[in-house]
Automatic annotation (TrEMBL):
<keyword id="KW-0333">Golgi apparatus</keyword>
<keyword id="KW-0067">ATP-binding</keyword>
<dbReference type="GO" id="GO:0000139">
    <property type="term" value="C:Golgi membrane"/>
</dbReference>
<keyword id="KW-1133">Transmembrane helix</keyword>
<feature type="transmembrane region" description="Helical">
    <location>
        <begin position="125"/>
        <end position="145"/>
    </location>
</feature>
<dbReference type="GO" id="GO:0005886">
    <property type="term" value="C:plasma membrane"/>
</dbReference>
<keyword id="KW-0832">Ubl conjugation</keyword>
<keyword id="KW-0868">Chloride</keyword>
<keyword id="KW-0406">Ion transport</keyword>
<keyword id="KW-0812">Transmembrane</keyword>
<keyword id="KW-0677">Repeat</keyword>
<feature type="transmembrane region" description="Helical">
    <location>
        <begin position="544"/>
        <end position="569"/>
    </location>
</feature>
<dbReference type="InterPro" id="IPR002247">
    <property type="entry name" value="Cl_channel-5"/>
</dbReference>
<protein>
    <recommendedName>
        <fullName>Chloride channel protein</fullName>
    </recommendedName>
</protein>
<comment type="subunit">
    <text>Interacts with NEDD4 and NEDD4L.</text>
</comment>
<dbReference type="InterPro" id="IPR001807">
    <property type="entry name" value="ClC"/>
</dbReference>
<dbReference type="InterPro" id="IPR046342">
    <property type="entry name" value="CBS_dom_sf"/>
</dbReference>
Length: 789
């Protein structure tokens, strides 16, 4: 939060600098931010004397023959006009109108010359070229991150003397001295105790390996948090809450920049390798968005239009859907070429179950959905409470210490248990696995495992010592994952939530699956089993329960349903299990929604005060626009500009005394008839540019927002025409418009403000922040939690 506050505390304005006012105000049109001051003082604000006019023929002030002259310097575009300040919301309607005008101009010019036609074709093709580049870069970075994380994770346990760049699995693949039973043990792979004390046996060797495991984990975590803190503070966290907000039209300068991309890529590998309870899938979304934003600047139509770079939120044309599909196709092809998973497949957890599920199993699947909903609601509440404590106490001032403490606790508790010591992705893969004759995992240590008449498949069998031992270890792993993930997510390092949530669900699902398997084996004559599970038959697949549990817990945390099932298909390739997955996902969402309506990302959006209007939430209250607009009763009158009676000094005074992001323009203060709306930023840049480049513009120059100016008396300074920066069609509603309609308009059009009128007269204004505050107030939440507009 310190970053946000620092950006909002940039006080003051220096003449001649665009950057000086970039963060001087929020986009809250009617909320003052104390401490904002602007200096418009000029030494040459006095019109020249008559003699000086004779000497300087370039002066365009008043006088005979020049009294009608109006300085319209905006015929040429001015850099900065039409852009947005940091931590502000874009005007979707204006941006889309600009893009239509640009496209219309290109189309008209294409008929005039061959070169213009080529330019028109290249402009149309640039979107597909951009998608190709984004797919290539995103897929390459994803493969690089996965390979690097796998290697550095194994580095905590040892190194490959046959090639330092090999991880444990690849090291033993290339070995000629490995047996199938001990395929994870090969002479080329040496643990740290073997390298340091030349033995891997005994208590001292265990202590050495333990110490090196914790040391490497702390080193990786320290490097990750230090790089984030020093070079790219925006590289921390998942990034999905901020990405959702940015796509909805919010400006966060630097969040999708090159430094954020570089640091997030490096620190994501370090954070995952440290063994913390986090994943890389959420941060990979941030990485991909950085790729898209950086590459967008290579193409004019995307670089100069904020809405074109965000065509996936309020505005989602069909062509964007096809281009998104094309980008995903290119990224998948690139990832397949890199083959980071080593299985020649695109999925992270490929599953191949040999037994179909039965209708009765919907009962345990629904139980897993209930568990996922309960876990999701518990996690969201506790994690948000901890993150709020981090933001409001001294804890937030020591991010490095916090990361190191959590890493130390995680590593110390994780090493003794093989299921917490291995990477979370490997754990999920093992839990999803359907045991076969060749599996050596303790989860597949069943009695009479080789006594089968079904070839490579195993029938239901009694659990052996290894299975019971694995169950105890998995139970302890479940407890550790549930607790430690609460404190890990939200720290100042890249941290995703998909993999930890899936791990919690997969462990719970595997435990339930083994329990159901043993129940069917010992009690196959029960009524619930005898109709479909005969003695010795292969009836229950524990790996399927793990997959369903993973989906349930992920759904409970994120509140996804259809997209969640698609994600599970992409991760596992298990297309035939759509009904169990949907049953668990829907149950999980219903249970979690009963305990709290927000998913984890929406909760973090609200915690950070981002101006995000959730499209799925319904507004059912019977309030009117007049109940929400500003000014309210007993408030000062609405600050407005008149179209033809204010001087430069008057406008500068209003800008200096207020921090509103824009001003309505009216015919006169008496009539309050609306003419249009002008942005504060455009006013500042335009006046600054006029003072610098146009002779004779002084404080007493009259500003006109009209098409023509009336005749001026002799010897008056030239007038300043600013009609080109005036929005002549601001969105308006009447004071009796139901807020239900107003909220819908803000959601679907992506408005940042809406003017309120009564019989054509201006009454007030409603900003996006006002709408969000009103929604929060109606939901009995703190309206002051909304920090930005």
């Amino acid at each position: 939060m310190a970053m946000w506050q620092g950006a909002m505390d940039n006080r003051g304005f220096q003449q001649g600098s665009f950057n000086s006012f970039r963060s001087s105000s929020s986009d809250e049109d009617l909320m003052d931010i104390p401490g904002t001051a602007m200096d418009f003082s000029m030494r040459d604000d006095v019109p020249p004397l008559d003699g000086e006019i004779e000497e300087d023929k370039s002066y365009n002030g008043g006088g005979i023959g020049s009294s009608n002259r109006m300085m319209d310097f905006l015929e040429e575009p001015i850099p900065g006009v039409g852009t947005y300040d940091d931590f502000n919301t874009i005007d979707w309607v204006r941006e889309k109108s600009r893009d239509r005008d640009r496209h219309r101009e290109i189309t008209n010019k294409s008929k005039e010359s061959t070169w213009a036609l080529i330019h028109s074709v290249s402009d149309a093709f640039s979107g597909w070229l951009l998608m190709l580049l984004i797919g290539l870069l995103s897929g390459s970075l994803a493969g690089l991150i996965d390979i690097s994380a796998h290697w550095m994770t194994d580095l905590k346990e040892g190194i490959c003397t046959g090639g330092l760049w090999f991880n444990h699995e690849h090291c033993c693949w290339n070995s000629e001295h490995v047996t199938f039973e001990d395929r994870d043990k090969c002479p080329e792979w040496n643990s740290w105790s073997q390298l340091i004390i030349s033995t891997d046996e005994g208590a001292f060797a265990y202590i050495v390996n333990y110490f090196m495991y914790v040391l490497w984990a702390l080193l990786f975590a320290f490097l990750a948090v230090s790089l984030v803190k020093v070079f790219a503070p925006y590289a921390c966290g998942s990034g999905i809450p901020e990405i959702k907000t940015i796509l909805s039209g919010f400006i966060i300068r630097g969040y999708l920049g090159k430094w954020t991309l570089i640091i997030k890529t490096i620190t994501l590998v370090l954070a995952v390798s440290s063994g913390l309870s986090l994943g890389k899938e959420g941060p990979l979304v941030h990485v991909a968005c950085c790729c898209g934003n950086i590459l967008c600047h290579c193409f004019n139509k995307y670089r100069k239009n904020e809405a074109k770079r965000r065509e996936v939120s309020y505005y989602f044309p069909l062509k964007t859907l096809w281009r998104s599909f094309f980008a995903a196709l290119v990224a998948a092809f690139t990832l397949r070429s890199i083959n980071p998973f080593g299985n020649s497949r695109l999925v992270l957890f490929y599953v191949e179950f040999h037994t179909p599920w039965h209708l009765f199993e919907l009962v345990p699947f629904i139980l897993l959905g209930i568990f996922g909903g309960l876990w999701g609601a518990l996690f969201i509440r506790t994690n948000i409470a901890w993150c709020r404590k981090r933001k409001t106490t001294q804890l937030g001032k020591y991010p490095v210490v916090e990361v190191l403490v959590v890493t130390a606790i995680t590593a110390i508790l994780a090493f003794p248990n093989e299921y917490t010591r291995m990477s979370t992705s490997e754990l999920i893969s093992e839990l999803f696995n359907d045991c076969g004759l060749l599996d050596s995992s303790k989860l597949c240590d069943y009695e009479n495992r080789f006594n089968t008449s079904k070839g490579g498949e195993l029938p239901d069998r009694p659990a052996g010592v290894g299975v019971y031992s694995a169950m105890w270890q998995l139970a302890l792993t479940l407890i550790l994952k549930i607790i430690i993930t609460i404190f890990t997510f939200g720290m100042k390092i890249p941290s995703g939530l998909f993999i930890p949530s899936m791990a919690v669900g997969a462990i719970a699902g595997r435990l339930l699956g083994v329990g159901m398997e043993q129940l069917a084996y010992y009690h196959h004559d029960w009524a619930i089993f005898n109709s479909w599970c005969s003695q010795g038959a292969d009836c229950i697949t524990p790996g399927l329960y793990a997959m369903v549990g993973a989906a349930a817990c992920l759904g409970g945390v994120t509140r996804m349903t259809v997209s969640l099932v698609v994600i599970m298909f992409e991760l596992t390739g298990g297309l035939e299990y759509i009904v169990p997955l949907m049953a668990a996902a829907m149950t999980s969402k219903w249970v979690a929604d009963a305990l709290g309506r927000e998913g984890i990302y929406d909760a973090h959006i609200r915690l950070n005060g981002y101006p995000f209007l959730e499209a799925k939430e319904e507004f059912a209250h019977k309030t009117l626009a007049m109940d929400v607009m500003k000014p309210r009763r007993n408030d000062p009158l609405l600050t407005v500009l008149t179209q033809d009676s204010m001087t430069v000094e008057d406008v500068e005074s209003i800008i200096s005394e207020t921090t509103y992001s824009g001003f309505p323009v009216v015919v006169s203060r008496e009539s309050q008839r609306l003419v249009g709306f002008v942005l504060r930023r455009d006013l500042i840049i335009s006046i600054e540019n006029a003072r610098k480049k146009q002779d004779g513009v002084v404080s007493t120059s009259v500003i006109y927002f009209t098409e023509h100016s009336p005749p001026m008396p002799p010897y008056t300074p030239p007038t300043l025409k600013l009609r080109n920066i005036l929005d002549l069609s601001p969105f308006t509603v009447t004071d009796l418009t139901p807020m239900e309609i107003v909220v819908d308009i803000f959601r679907k059009l992506g408005l940042r403000q809406c003017l309120v009128t009564h019989n054509g007269r201006l009454l007030g204004i409603i900003t996006k922040k006002d709408v969000l505050k009103h929604i929060a107030q109606m939901a009995n939440q703190d309206p002051d939690s909304i920090l930005f507009n």
